[in-house]
Specification:
This protein has 445 residues and is an alpha/beta fold. It is 38% helix and 13% strand. The protein has 20 helices and twelve strands. The protein has helices at residues 4-11, 15-21, 44-60, 77-86, 101-106, 114-118, 131-134, 159-164, 176-186, 220-225, 243-257, 273-278, 292-295, 337-348, 350-358, 367-375, 387-395, 405-411, 416-419, 425-440, and strands spanning 34-40, 64-70, 93-97, 138-139, 142-143, 146-152, 154-158, 284-287, 308-311, 321-330, 363-364, 396-398. Strands 1, 2, 3, 6, 10, 11 and 12 form a seven-stranded mixed sheet that branches. The model is unreliable at 1-27 (pLDDT under 50).
């Protein structure tokens, strides 16, 4: 079978014409009803949430039915979507993330929704949504979808471990030097074998075939903290080879390779950072509010067996953090743009926000609901300083992906030797930058 990258390049060759020329079959339409096909990711937890969203939407819109379909696995999502478009049976609406949205926006297959939003005449406006995330769904000045849920990354920490080590809790204005001092004080050898077995933090993912790699929705923050960047503002050139960017990456890599306040790959026993934090082997973890569904007590959940709280990410030359978000787009080939808009608006608006929050799905992009939940949490086990997430929205940024995101993902291979200490960080950044800039020269077809 062809690789995902090969398929993206091959199937995309027919994408533009097929997207504009194909009509959706309407055999599923019932008398007096419009049926919309919605392509979604296959994660069971995600499907449960969207099943609730769809049921609620259909109850509020009895003339619209949503037929949810999925790929056989998340890895095959783009392959299925491109196959459906090229084969003349595209969905009406599909889910996107910050990784693949630029690809579909570049291919001109998404319906611009600026006029649909404007026609709401104040009933539902862009001001109701967090602009930092909404802007992630703009391309060349036009809006091509609505985000539904999101979370910035903040620092979660084990208060009991801080107390045991006599370390003050992180301050709102702590900086990278203070952060490193805290990390050194929290890293301990508890079994007397001369090697740490309790660490302050972990700077790589911990699972899967690329378990030693940090997540791309985490490490850019350390580059930004040092005044560096991944791309130029217009996304025309990768600039990870600047001294500021290399310095930020160097600090991040040094947490494990030099200071050993993070385990090295292989020292985590195959566990994720969340696993190690929950088992008291990590004192801190940079994470999103999506993790609350694991860490907070609730239905069928006991919560963590220790006291914990949130703090901002440490400040470098500037304050920075990343976002995780999900959203939905309408394919411009749909026969039912108004009904699709009703679905997008419902998910992103107050009703969808309430269902997202009830499902523990981080924060809604609908500002009034997010602020109400953080200021008056419905779950009594919510950490005391949950407001860190709201504050982080103001200075957070989305980790940028180019339209050539398959090539961009492959360029990440250049960092493997740096994560493992087999080449310098500067060399890895220079190789990555060279590969990405080479890919950016080629138009996505």
């Amino acid at each position: 079978m062809p690789s995902r990258r090969t398929f993206l390049k091959g199937a995309a060759a027919t994408l533009a014409g097929a997207a504009l020329g194909c009509d959706r079959a309407s055999d599923d339409d019932e008398p007096g009803k419009v049926t919309l096909t919605f392509l979604n990711y296959a994660t069971p937890e995600f499907l449960r949430l969207y099943s609730q969203l769809i049921a609620s939407f259909e109850a509020a819109h009895p003339n619209i039915r949503i037929r949810q379909i999925t790929s056989l696995g998340d890895a095959g999502y783009d392959t299925k979507l491109l196959t459906m478009i090229a084969g003349g049976i595209p969905p009406d609406v599909f889910h996107v993330t910050q990784a693949n949205f630029p690809f579909y926006a570049t291919k001109d297959v998404c319906l611009p929704i600026d006029e649909l939003m404007k026609n709401e005449r104040g009933a539902f406006t862009e001001a109701d949504l967090y602009s930092q995330v909404l802007d992630g769904m703009r391309f060349k000045g036009r809006l091509f979808g609505l985000p539904s849920d999101m979370s910035p990354i903040v620092m979660l920490y084990n208060q009991d471990m801080f107390n045991e080590c006599g370390v003050p809790y992180p301050r709102e204005d702590w900086d990278l030097n203070q952060f490193l001092d805290v990390c050194k004080a929290l890293t301990r050898d508890t079994n007397g074998n001369g090697e740490p077995d309790v660490y302050a933090i972990m700077n790589f993912s911990g699972t899967g075939p690329e378990q030693f790699r940090p997540a791309y929705n985490r490490w850019p923050a350390w580059v930004w903290m040092n005044g560096g960047d991944i791309f130029t503002p217009d996304m025309s050139r990768c600039v990870l080879d600047t001294p500021e960017a290399i310095g930020g990456m160097q600090f991040f890599v040094d947490l494990s390779l030099r200071h050993h306040v993070s385990p090295n790959p292989g020292e985590n026993s195959g566990q994720t950072g969340q696993d190690l934090f929950a088992s008291k082997r990590l004192a801190m973890i940079p994470d999103s509010r999506y993790v609350y569904k694991k860490f907070c007590a609730g239905k069928g959940r006991n919560g963590l067996p220790f006291r914990w709280d949130c703090a901002p990410m440490p400040r470098g030359k500037q304050r920075a953090t990343t976002f995780i978000w999900g959203g939905n787009c309408i394919l411009k080939s749909t026969k039912h743009p108004q009904e699709c808009w009703q679905f997008l608006k419902y998910i992103a608006g107050p009703a969808g926000a309430a269902i997202n929050l009830a499902g523990g799905n981080a924060l809604p992009v609908y500002r009034p609901a997010a602020e109400k939940e953080v200021l008056n949490p419905t779950n009594p086990s919510t950490p005391k300083h949950d407001r860190c997430f709201l504050d982080a929205i103001e200075y957070g940024k989305i980790a940028p992906y180019p339209a050539q995101y398959a090539d961009f993902g492959q360029a990440m291979d250049r960092f493997d030797d740096a994560w493992l200490g087999r080449c310098s960080v500067a060399e890895a950044c220079q190789r990555f930058t060279r590969d990405v800039n080479r890919a950016l020269k080629f138009e996505v077809v």
